[in-house]
Design brief:
Length: 246
């Protein structure tokens, strides 16, 4: 499995950190987790034709994770796509998606089937991978995902608040990608700090912790120091364009 961090920023993007997007490659399959603004172009920069994506997973509704969904669907339609598109998202996502498509009918699937899978019930599992989901308590319905493929386990939080569900989602994972919005001294109830993320990683017994989703107040040396106090294993601070093999 290979992970490409397309965007490691937030709703307050900076020059070096675009809003959220994470590509997971499993063999020939490309799975996209969230699509903040600019994800479509960044996929192209990494050699992935957005209209060729077959598997989309969304963690929650916020714009820094969803802004490129409609452009992506419009491109799929304009390319006269015929293959099914498999979209997994929390139940709260469906009225949101229906609303977007009602306002922007040009993005409605006309030439292909958009198949919906609800994270709480039946996240899409492919021929060579399985996916499960757990609530992340960031906003109503927000979910993180656990992917098992090629004998490895990767867990991805999306945005999250500190909660036991995250520990369960990440239990024993080879690699855990956690959001880390604010440094310890600016903690907020609906996001994680470096210390909180590190405690989750330690409690879950993960092999490697990757932090992402940094607001501008996150300074790398401080984030690293705060996280390293609670998690002794390998720690990586994601950057836009970073590629990791698992
Ligand atoms: Zn976010
Ligand atoms: Zn959010």
């Amino acid at each position: 499995m290979q992970l490409t961090f397309l965007g490691t920023g937030t709703g307050l993007p900076t020059r070096g950190r675009a809003p959220s997007g994470l590509l997971a490659r499993i063999g020939d399959a490309c799975l996209l987790f969230d699509s903040g603004s600019g994800t479509t172009e960044r996929l192209l920069a990494h050699g992935v034709e957005p209209t060729q994506l077959d598997y989309l997973y969304y963690t929650h509704l916020h714009s820094d994770h969803t802004a490129d969904l409609v452009p992506l669907l419009q491109a799929m339609d304009l390319s006269r796509r015929s293959r099914d598109l498999h979209l997994t998202a929390p139940a709260a996502f469906w009225p949101f998606l229906d609303g977007l498509l009602a306002l922007q009918p040009w993005a409605r699937p006309a030439t292909y089937q958009l198949r919906r899978y609800t994270a709480e019930l039946d996240p899409y599992c492919g021929p060579t991978w399985s996916v499960s989901a757990a609530p992340t308590h960031h906003m109503p319905g927000s979910h993180g995902y656990r992917i098992e493929a090629e004998g490895k386990v990767v867990a991805i939080s999306g945005d999250a608040a500190p909660c036991p569900d995250l520990v369960a989602l990440a239990r024993g994972a080879d690699l855990l990608v956690l959001e880390c919005s604010f440094p310890d001294e600016l903690a907020k109830p609906d996001h994680l700090t470096p210390s909180q993320a590190a405690h989750i990683a330690a409690a879950a017994g993960v092999g490697h912790l990757v932090l992402t989703h940094f607001y501008p107040s996150c300074r790398e040396p401080a984030v690293r120091a705060q996280a390293a106090r609670a998690f002794a294993g390998p720690l990586t601070l994601a950057r836009d364009g970073m590629v990791l093999a698992v």
